[in-house]
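Lecture 7, part B: from sequences to assemblies.

Below are the input chains for today's worked example.
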Amino acid sequence: MSHNIVSPLPGLFYRKPGPGKDAYISEGDRVESGQTIGVIEIMKQFSEIRSDVAGTLTSFAVEDFGAVNPGDVIAVIEVGP
Amino acid sequence: MSFEILEPGLSTTVQDRGRLGYYNVGIPQGGSMDQWSAELANAVAGNTAAEAVLECTYLGPRFRTTEAAVIAVGGAPVDVKVNGENREQWTRLELAAGDEVSFGFLQGGTRFYIAVRGGIDVPLVLGSRSTYTLGSLGGFKGRKLEAGDVVPVGPSAAGNKGLGGIDPALRPTYTRELDIRVVCGLYDHRLTEAGMNTLLSSTWTLTPVADRTGLRYSGPAIEWKPRQQPFGAGSDPSNIVDAGYAVGSIQIPGGNEPIALHRDAVSGGGYAMVATVISADMDLLARSAPGTQTRFRAVTMKDALRARADLKALRHRLWGN
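Predicted structure of the full complex, as structure tokens:
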């Protein structure tokens, strides 16, 4: 079963915690419930986006540095043990 | 009576009609970014226009009321939940002691307002309960709310039940394409004719860099008149010798990316203000979400004053005075 991680915020989506740092997670990686998969910047604040399920992150639906709006799908996760 | 904040949301602050009269010493007027929505919420909750409300930005809070309370939620469209059950915006919501209020995702706009009968009862600072976070002044301890805060609610005035609802025609609208009226000046003479045309004929995209201080737009480069910069002005043609900034004024640092100052604006600085958003359109600006396609349309001072008078008349109709 696939599960969408949806953005609660508008802003810019970043896959890395900072320039020159490794991405939080890559497509195909295992993800745990509560794990950070990226951050959204809005109003000079960075909000971590966490997965609410465990499984495999199959794909990102937003590119790095991409603009998002509330309700937009950020990533798709294949739910699994 | 009070609200216990369980989750604060992205940026939830106490606001009212603002702290007028101190801009000359650098303290901005502040107040609800979208004054009209806050006022409508107050009208439904059974308050006057003066009571302080909670301004919720993008992501709302989750809170519990310690006693029975009457609230109303106005502003940007959002799912309202009481104890997990969906409730309506723009209507009176009667809460019992212990009820928990939470919110879904915003479906448009930027901010919604929670009015509670009796108002949010933080101390008055310089005549206002508004939070000025940059100055750590007013509101709840001069800052946005945090989990664990206990926010006091004032006693309700007897006899005011509030409006049964708000006529949809009076409710704010949310659009991704917006015309904003501006009066040119005070420094429009610093732009070339082509530069001014670019400002007024282009479609500007609101960037995510938009908060209570100002809103930054992206679009084409704007041409300034070349000049020998006077003593005291910076080296860029968009620099001037420091001057007072009007609330709503538009500056264009470097000639790209106009910034429209909003209710928590700094009171002065060294960027030329080429135009000023009219007071009647400040709420529209406040409702703009990132990505909103915006055009700045020049109007005369007479038009601006008429729009202000129209808004005042609408307020009188709402409050029946």
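Note for the exam: Chain A has one domain: 2-79. Keep this in mind when comparing with the next example.
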